Amino acid sequence: MPERNIEFGKYGARGIKGHEAVARQLDALAGYIATPTTARRGLLARLHYLTRTDHARAAARAAGLTVTDRTLRAWLEGTRSPSRKNLDRIEQAYRTVRRENVARYLLARLNHEGRGTRVEIHPINQSQVDGPRRRVVEFRTLNVRRWDRIVAAWAVGDDQELDDAWVDQVVDLGSQWGQYEYVTNVGFAA
User: Fold this and answer.
1) CA 36, 40, 42, 44: dihedral to nearest 10 degrees?
2) How far apart are CA 65 and CA 50, in angstroms?
3) Residues 6+ apart with CB under 8 A from 19
4) Cα–Cα distance, 169 to 3 (Å, whole number)
5) Which residues contact 66 (CB under 8 A, 6 or more apart)?
6) What are 12-30's pLDDT values in tens digits?
């Protein structure tokens, strides 16, 4: 696309891709367990979330947590501790299953019966850019009415689809939409 940045940050501008900021905000709305997996409490909370029902166990297995029931029981009872590799798998499976579980709820809240959700887009940080090279990029708001593709891509962790879905919404900003490919923050509530 002609508006995509090829050499972002060449002159000192700082920011992140807009779709990454959207994913970060959706993760915040998902409400993950705050205690890390390295703490016993965090590990138990994640394991209980992943094993409380047969449906949850199947989703955890599909998300990559492929250990035996005996091993899970030993972790829950505290007779054995998972290795660092298994802790990472538990965290990844937990995040994947949590995203799938809250995606439908978030989608309904964000679409708000067709009214959509107001999104604040904070422009890139140009404090390190020389004066003559700075652009005037102001704070913008946008009402996003169609969150289906965005939430679906976020739920499965597809960055490319999330980027495409986000760009499809940002083009509603008009001819300057390319200036908001990189941002410092994207804020919205559900």
Assistant:
1) 150
2) 9
3) 159, 162, 163, 165, 166, 167
4) 14
5) none
6) 888 899 999 999 999 999 9
- Identify the CA nearest to 138 among candidates 167, 168, 179: 179
User: CA-CA distance, 51 to 72, in Å (whole number)?
Assistant: 9
DSSP 66-113: ---HHHHHHHHHTSS---HHHHHHHHHHHHHHHHHHHHHHHHHHHHGG
Q: Is 69 buried (19+), middle (13-18) or exposed (0-12) by CB count in 10 A?
A: exposed
Question: Cα separation of 82 and 42, whole Å?
Answer: 13
The whole model's pTM is what?
0.86
Distance, in Å, from the CA atom of 162 to the CA atom of 152, rounded to the nearest integer, reads 8
Condensed to tens digits (0 to 9), the pLDDT of residues 83-112 reads: 999 999 999 999 999 999 999 999 999 999
